[in-house]
């Protein structure tokens, strides 16, 4: 694995746009961004997953860019949501945000004004503490 280049990040965001467009063309009611469970979107706003020193090192840059780029694709008549963990179950010493940090990320995502709902998730198959 490697740190994604800015071009690769743009390519991934373009992939999200293409997938959302395909969903809209197929007649789905909306799209949910999966920003939970340690996947890429979650990694982008978590200290354990994002140690970049460029513009993408801003913990909210990837998430808010994704939301802002998907809203026009989904349109105002269809649903755009975000699923994220209510707790990342990692101590701060290991880069965890905890419930308060996750709440702050959720607030910033909602502050874009482009989300129709927030789906809070939590759960773990193993103990991290």
Short description:
The chain has 129 residues and is α/β, with parallel strands linked by helices. It has four helices and three strands.
Q: Please tell me the total number of domains.
A: 1
Mean pLDDT: 94
- Walk across the major sheet and give the strand order: 1-2-3
Question: What is the number of E strands?
Answer: 3
Which band does the percent of strand residues land in? 5-15%
How would you classify the helix and strand content by structural class? alpha/beta
Helical coverage, percent range: 40-55%
Low-confidence stretches: none
User: How many helical stretches?
Assistant: 4
Largest β sheet strand count, sense and barrel closure: 3 strands, parallel
Describe the structure.
This protein is an alpha/beta fold and 129 residues long. The chain has one domain (10-121). 42% of the residues lie in helices and 14% in strands. It has helices at 6-25, 40-45, 61-74, 98-111, and strands at residues 30-35, 79-85, 117-121. It has a three-stranded parallel sheet with strand order 1-2-3. Helix 1 runs parallel beside helix 3. It is globular and about 45 Å long. The two termini are 26 Å apart.
């Amino acid at each position: 694995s490697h740190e994604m280049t800015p071009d690769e990040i743009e390519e991934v965001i373009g992939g999200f746009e293409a997938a959302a467009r395909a969903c809209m063309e197929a007649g789905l009611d909306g799209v949910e961004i999966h920003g939970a469970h340690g996947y890429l979107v979650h990694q982008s706003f978590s200290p354990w997953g994002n140690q970049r020193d460029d513009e993408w090192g801003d913990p909210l840059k990837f998430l808010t860019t994704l939301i802002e780029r998907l809203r026009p694709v989904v349109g105002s008549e269809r649903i755009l949501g975000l699923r994220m963990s209510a707790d990342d179950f990692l101590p701060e010493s290991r880069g965890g945000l905890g419930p308060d940090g996750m709440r702050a990320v959720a607030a910033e995502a909602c502050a874009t004004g482009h989300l129709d709902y927030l789906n809070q998730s939590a759960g773990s198959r193993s103990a991290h503490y």
